[in-house]
Backbone:
């Protein structure tokens, strides 16, 4: 199915957010996630089912002021 | 200085953005003596691992991190960003920015108060980036904020304290509340002035990161912050309009 990952249309086979992160190469990366503008904790990713068109945001620590 | 129950030795807080290199960033922090570093969260691609490299750098600084919600314009966006930052950086601290105006990056006072309340109720310790408005400050305290961070001038301008009257009034209205002048500072003298007004700390980024020699500027700010704090604590003299000789008049030789 097609979902949006960080603003880009992306084809995934994954059924859950945790599976999508694995499939997209995040592995053990230090990232935080949101689906459709709502925060999804690391612990909840395995139970978070994805639907076509879902908007997934994946962020990591960065420089800031 | 005590912020949300945590004692912080330095009254200078420093941002981590815009340095020419990670090595220059680390050296600037070393010479600043800063005890708090602001950081952000941004999109990461699969396999990129830039976040892990930056996180290692920040951990090496030996400072507390204060994640921000920079660039957020809505309540929803700011809340979600804060929740992601809390998990990533493992801290309840959040520098809350809810921007209301594109050219000045002025806070949206209505969205700021609403977001501050949601986050405080959710256990966050909120450091709101605000203006010098005393009514807004009162609302933020009512919402659960225990620290206020009024701007000196718009972010990145280096204009210094553009509303001295407003900042003096705000300081006087809430004497027991820790307050940090955040944003708009360009020179150490401006940081010293903020401290002389009785502000507890200053937070800056661009003035150091964009200086020709960021590490030297960081040390300059550190000394200015210390000088300003000493002056505030030393109870400065009252200014007066007419001259008053400092050398004794009595005993002067009569040579006319």
Residues:
């Amino acid at each position: 199915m097609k979902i949006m990952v960080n603003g880009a249309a992306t084809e995934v086979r994954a059924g859950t957010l945790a599976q999508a992160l694995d499939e997209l190469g995040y592995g053990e990366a230090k990232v935080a996630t949101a689906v459709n503008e709502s925060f999804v904790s690391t612990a909840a990713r395995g139970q978070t089912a994805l639907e076509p068109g879902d908007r997934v945001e994946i962020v990591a620590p960065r420089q800031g002021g | 200085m005590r912020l949300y129950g945590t004692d912080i030795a330095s009254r200078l807080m420093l941002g981590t953005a815009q340095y020419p290199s990670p090595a220059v960033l680390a050296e600037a922090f070393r010479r600043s003596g800063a005890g708090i570093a602001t950081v952000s969260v941004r999109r990461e691609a699969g396999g990129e691992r830039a976040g892990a490299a930056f996180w290692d750098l920040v951990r090496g600084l030996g400072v507390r991190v204060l994640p921000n919600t920079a660039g957020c314009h809505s309540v929803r966006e700011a809340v979600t960003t804060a929740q992601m930052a809390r998990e990533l950086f493992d801290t309840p601290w959040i520098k809350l920015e809810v921007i209301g105006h594109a050219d000045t990056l002025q806070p949206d006072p209505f969205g700021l108060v609403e977001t501050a309340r949601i986050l405080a109720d959710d256990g966050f310790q909120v450091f709101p980036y605000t203006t010098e408005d005393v009514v807004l400050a009162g609302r933020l305290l009512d919402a659960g904020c225990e620290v206020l961070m009024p701007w000196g001038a718009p972010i990145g301008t280096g204009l210094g304290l553009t509303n001295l009257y407003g900042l003096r009034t705000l300081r006087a209205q809430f004497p027991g509340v820790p307050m940090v002048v955040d944003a708009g500072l360009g020179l150490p003298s401006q940081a010293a002035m903020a401290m002389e007004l009785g502000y507890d700390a200053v937070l800056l980024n661009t003035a150091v990161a964009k200086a020709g020699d960021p590490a030297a500027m960081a040390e300059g700010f550190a000394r200015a912050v210390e000088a300003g704090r000493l002056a505030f604590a030393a109870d400065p003299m009252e200014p007066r309009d007419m001259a008053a000789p400092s050398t004794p008049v009595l005993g002067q030789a009569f040579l006319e």
